[in-house]
Queue: 2 jobs
Job 1
Amino acid sequence: MSLDKYGWDAFFAESFAPLARDGYAAGRVFLQHNKIYMLYAEAGELAAEVAGKMEYEASGPDDFPAVGDWVAIRTRKDERKATIHEILPRRSKFSRKVAGSRTDEQIVAANVDTLFLVTGLDNDFNLRRIERYLLMASESGARAVVVLNKADVAEDVEAKVREVRAIASDAPVLLMSAKESEGVEQLLPYTGAGQTVSLIGSSGVGKSTIINKLLGTEKQKVSEVRASDERGKHTTTHRELLLLPTGGLIIDTPGMRELQLLVREHGLRDTFEDIEALMSRCYFSDCGHKTEPDCAVREALATGELDAERYSNYQKMQAEMDALAAKQARGLAALKKEKMKKIHQELKKHKKRY
């Protein structure tokens, strides 16, 4: 089984070369269920688990394989099984903070070339949510493409498209109606041989319908959307890497009830480059954009050059990032303190022994 059809290229081959010399084989994770990973490998499809050493040394969820990852394995061909010993460097990764109060990173999909950011033009339409998706796509390292679905049921379509293009920077904005099979062909140029794409978006926006159109079969279950609020059920319950007739691959992801930021400063700059440009024009380099004179941001807000809701969303996401960074710093300090405590306890035991 050739690995090229699953996205293997020179980038991964270069990092894998030392491992190949040590006798490891390569595989790509196409499905995960609890601690069992299904892989595409030269030996065929294999069920795999991580090695004990790898599990012991892991410091968080991001140290374990995710769907889309390339991994170094030892195979047991007779059993159709393998052991994962190492994750190859990721070319891109789409991450979010795990649900709840913890600050761990959850990798939604790895080694994605293009992220389709899907939103519905019905009641799901929300510019501020699209900004969050654009921010996380920028951080991931993948190309972002905004997909506006359900054009057949939308009102003021052209106005909504203009609004999205105004915030999407260089990201293409595609209009379609997957249910009516209109506009889906616009996605095909991103799904060529060896290219990996992924769809993200809230439940009910039509991701499963789009995937079925790209696959040419009804593989993904599609649920009806509630008439009361035009929201759908979480049809997709797990992530899976699927082969497309075009030669590309697609990772489906469950709808996300919460999309908590796990990004750094450059992602915010890339997504809100218009606001960053305004800030650079302020008279004071440390301008707080509140009462300072010659503030380009406040002037742009007053004239309407800068949308107030967009700026408010920027401030909100900046505050989220700052709060998360502070929480992570406290967590690292507590972890370091706990490690030092254990070291001192071991030293005391050693002194008593000798």
Job 2
Amino acid sequence: MLPRPIVFFTILLFSSCAFADQKETVENLQIIKADGERLHYHIELADTDYSRRKGLMHRRSLAPDHGMLLAYPKPEMVAIWMKNTHIPLDIIYINRRGEITQINTAAIPHDLTALPSHTPTLAVLELNAGEVERQDIKVGDKVIHPIFAD
């Protein structure tokens, strides 16, 4: 029988290796604005507890037309923070129908302030800070991705 510290270290090592091997899925996502214009993004889908917690932490850059979609199993009240996140982000909260319900722009890197949703949220889209203003994305715009009901 191994001493407890060795057993704990061994479990921790194998758990870390399993997480290190996980790769986020890259998919396409569209935002349809009120005027009908379609915006196209390449997103990483974070649909596990681990990938949602990790989010964009420790990243140094994000391509202009890329982002991360944090997808939850069911609509719930969520809160995002910027711990260990080096990139300023626009945070977009989306309901189960794919409607944008809330937007927080220019979340500050490394800020530990929680940015909570005000309504039940099925997903959160993280884009480079300034993207919401640059593209004139608004509450009520529609997000198209397979996780949202029609």
